Inverse folding.
């Protein structure tokens, strides 16, 4: 049977010839469409005009995609049928839009069937376990929807509507069966940090469209999912403001009166709304037990050109919500609870002191009222949560000493481990070796191992961003890194050395290939590492890049579910006492799109044959 990665590779390769501009946009996430439309130098333009084979190759590519799309209807694997037809539709969009729309619809019908069958299978497995069904791990409809929405907002909205309706039907159907088991999500407070899948899907689409420069279409998809106020909706507004501040401000302003009139609004609503006017890309929510969740989507910046009236409107609404009558503990249904409300008021008070001093006294009175119900651990004035993003960090502040000062009051090994964890993270900002010293003091073996790996990976990532090739290669030898992390570090070090020291860059890629071969055959990380090596070899040694692609083909064909897209690295530290710290980074060199586009430019026929 044909394999997903191989077929996806073929479509990606062909799409570059069918529609070079759209393929280039996919190869360069975040680039505005205008970049693909920039005029080429006169010499290159003239060369393209006289290339007698350009149109021949394009027609051949269209024919191959059409043939593949027709063949896909006969595949035994329904997931493969949906994915290949959707990819074919995307590749054919500019060449034959009517055909592309028909293929998208066929792909959606296949995807609906696949998701329904997979949902029933999960329900049966959950029934056998006597536990509620696990959260949906993936959805073929999401893949089809993402591609269609980026091409046509009308078609995307049609699929979104069908997607939303099916989710409602699934929730309704599952309610009777849940009466004897754990409570379902129905009737529970809206979780602003984990909104329903239909909302997150809209917002994810909007974020992709914004990064592609299509802000108008992004707003169409995002608008219905911005309220209730949630972390990902606020992130979409922050991203939109970078491209279209006027539209983003207008959407944000519309959220404020809705939040003010909504009885379900609470301290977390106020905290998330604050991000837009004070802490873009930094989002904080606090649970009723006082545990917080901080998400940072990028380096924090000060909002430029923000209308003071918009900030004043936020402060009015924020105070109004925070000063609502406090429900009794047994009647409190807010997502923040009394403790979370205390923490958020304490966190935001410096902003009210500075920009709305007339409201600060009432908020302090409310803070005092809630303090009696707040445990001591959530009232520590040295907790960095209270000042993160709100108060400029004191360059003379010794965060390590502050963390270690709590050791004497630690009640058990778990508390001591958390203190050393915080000390290590504080030290890692300036001194990796010092951070490792504190990490090695953690008693729990698993936590210590995970933190040491996370610290090393953080150092590698910072060195890559700082373009410090020698440091990247030195850190790649650290024993804490996994094989795939080491392979990625070596390929990034090679990328930084391509122009200054190509010989050493090739040596680093040889080492990266060896690391890739150590990864288990059943792991998609093995394929991704090979792809990264091949991607960097394109500029250094095109012949060896073609050779490396043979290993990519062999490794990908061993994994029927590997798609060759959306490669990433995840670093996670799980604490024995509960909770976790997760860091995800997207790795473009792990995706097949870029390497096949590059190879197709050099030799389309060879690239197409390789993909097949």
């Amino acid at each position: 049977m044909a394999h997903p990665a191989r077929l996806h590779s073929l479509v990606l390769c062909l799409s570059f010839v069918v529609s070079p501009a759209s393929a280039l946009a996919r190869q360069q996430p975040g680039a505005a469409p205008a970049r693909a439309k920039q005029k080429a130098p006169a010499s290159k333009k003239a060369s393209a005009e006289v290339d007698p084979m350009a149109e021949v190759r394009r027609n051949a590519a269209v024919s191959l995609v059409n043939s593949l799309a027709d063949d896909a209807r006969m595949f035994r694997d329904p997931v493969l049928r949906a994915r290949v037809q959707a990819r074919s539709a995307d590749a054919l969009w500019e060449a034959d839009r009517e055909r592309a729309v028909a293929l998208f619809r066929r792909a959606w019908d296949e995807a609906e069937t696949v998701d329904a069958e997979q949902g029933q299978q999960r329900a049966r497995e959950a029934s056998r376990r006597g536990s509620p069904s696990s959260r949906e791990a993936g959805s073929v409809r999401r893949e089809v929807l993402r591609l269609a929405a980026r091409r046509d907002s009308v078609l995307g909205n049609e699929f979104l509507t069908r997607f939303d309706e099916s989710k409602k039907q699934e929730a309704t159907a599952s309610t009777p069966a849940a009466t004897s088991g754990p409570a379902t999500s129905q009737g529970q407070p809206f979780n602003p940090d984990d909104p329903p899948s239909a909302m997150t899907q809209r917002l994810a689409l909007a974020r992709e469209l914004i990064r592609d420069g299509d802000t108008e279409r992004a707003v169409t998809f995002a608008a219905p999912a911005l309220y209730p106020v949630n972390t990902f909706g606020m992130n979409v507004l922050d991203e939109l403001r970078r491209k279209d501040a006027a539209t983003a401000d207008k959407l944000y302003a519309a959220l404020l009166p809705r939040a003010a009139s909504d009885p379900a609004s609470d301290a977390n609503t106020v905290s998330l709304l604050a991000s837009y006017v004070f802490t873009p890309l930094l989002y904080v929510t606090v649970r009723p037990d006082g545990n917080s969740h901080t998400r940072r989507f990028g380096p924090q910046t000060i909002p430029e050109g923000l209308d003071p009236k918009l900030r004043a409107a936020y402060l009015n609404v924020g105070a109004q919500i925070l000063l609502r009558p406090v429900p009794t503990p047994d009647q409190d249904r807010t997502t923040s609870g009394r403790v979370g409300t205390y923490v958020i008021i304490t966190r935001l008070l410096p902003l009210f002191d500075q920009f709305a001093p007339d409201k600060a006294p009432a908020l302090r009175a409310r803070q005092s009222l809630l303090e009696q119900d707040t445990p001591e651990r959530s009232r520590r004035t040295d907790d960095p949560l209270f000042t993160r993003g709100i108060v400029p960090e004191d360059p003379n502040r010794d965060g390590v000493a502050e963390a270690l000062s709590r050791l004497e009051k630690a009640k058990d090994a778990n508390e001591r481990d958390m203190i050393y964890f915080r000390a290590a993270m504080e030290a890692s900002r300036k001194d990796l070796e010092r951070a490792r010293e504190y990490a090695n003091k953690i008693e729990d073996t698993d936590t210590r191992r995970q933190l040491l790996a996370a610290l090393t990976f953080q150092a590698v990532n910072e060195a890559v961003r700082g373009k410090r090739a020698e440091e990247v290669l030195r850190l790649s030898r650290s024993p804490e890194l996994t094989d795939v992390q080491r392979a990625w570090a070596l390929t990034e070090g090679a990328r930084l050395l391509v122009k200054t020291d190509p010989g050493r860059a090739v040596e680093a890629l040889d080492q990266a290939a060896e690391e890739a071969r150590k990864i288990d055959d059943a792991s998609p990380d093995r394929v991704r590492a090979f792809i990264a090596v091949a991607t960097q070899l394109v500029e250094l040694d095109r012949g060896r890049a073609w050779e490396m692609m043979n290993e990519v083909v062999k490794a990908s064909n061993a994994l029927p579910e590997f798609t060759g897209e959306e490669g990433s690295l995840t670093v996670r530290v799980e604490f024995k006492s509960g909770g976790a710290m997760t860091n995800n980074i997207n790795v473009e060199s792990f995706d097949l799109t870029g390497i096949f586009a590059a190879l197709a430019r050099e030799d389309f026929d060879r690239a197409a044959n390789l993909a097949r």
